[in-house]
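Write out this protein's structure.
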Amino acid sequence: MEALKINQLEVENVKRIKAVKVEPTANGLTIIGGNNNQGKTSVLDSIAWALGGDRYRPSQATREGSLIPPILHIVMNNGLVVERKGKNSDLKVTDPSGRKGGQQLLNEFVNQLALDLPKFMDATGKEKADILLQIIGIGDQLHSLEQQETDQYNRRRAIGQIADQKEKFAKEQPYYPDAPKDIVSATELIKRQQDILAKNGENQRKRERLHQLEQESQKINEELEALLKRQEQVQADLETARKSAADLQDESTAELEASITNIEEINRKVRANLDKDKAEDDAREYRRQYDGLTKELEDTRQKKTDLLKNAPLPLPELSVEDGNLVYKGQQWDNMSGSDRLKVATAIVRKLNPKCGFVLLDKLEQMDLGTLQDFGSWLEAEGLQAIATRVSTGSECSIIIEDGYVAGQEQPEQPEKKTWKAGAF
């Protein structure tokens, strides 16, 4: 279905307009030029009122000094005729296809933002982005992903703070590399000491036995002749005792005695090392959780990117990032005036593809080159834009002067009757 556009517009006695007839170009830019206070904006207000309904009716609709009420007559490209006239400016819609209806029928074709583009232009960045996302049908999905992203970010930040605290705490803990891994038991040390002392006592008894045998040997030697037989037996025992004693070696208890003496200091170091190990384990665990949440956050952000990448956006290079419209890498406040109009116009068109026109006020902000580029873009997109510009240059399609189109034949306007004393 072809988008609805304006073929012809006739307006009389609305605000500053006396009588204006306009035939906008079907595709591209129709500029209504003129100096200030001549009635340019009144033309746009008339279109908005005619098509948009009483919500757009000017508070002082009738031109000052006119005896005739406002007359509005618009012919659309599908043959639809819209009229407002009479004392109450009643609406009459004539549909060549025979469909009946007034404002409700117009609402099917007319986009409210097309009639009131400043409402979109003045919206906040988030409101603009929300309008776009709802138009392309991914607003709810993106909102859900953004909420998920926020929750993941907050959880990751909390875990990261704990991980930083744990790592800092672990670094501050003292560590003694020479300390044993486990807590030292005093009972075990004392038992080991007793075992060594018992073994050393046994060794001492063996030494005493050796000494005794040596003395006995000496005595036997002195009584060798009488005790030869005894000497041989003792000599054999002596050899055996010497062999047994030769491999004996006493163990020192100095280290154990020192350990027993310093057991509290040793255990203090062991506990410190265990605390440090525990702190480092905690820090690693929270860092692992942080890394896991980072992965989840990146996955969510990628889903958002993919969702927007595959969405039917109205313009190439148009996207939504962090809740803001972005076009050619620039947010709304950094876009040029022409880019803002392109974005707004494209979004409005996407909102209701049946509506093929848009009203633009105050295009004097654009230089002629930018204006030409914008007009070329509208033509390429098959869009109709009716705009005003404070100018009387050749770029203007028509010039409004004192409520009339310059160069058009001006209909006669009845004079307002004034009262004079004595005259009836």
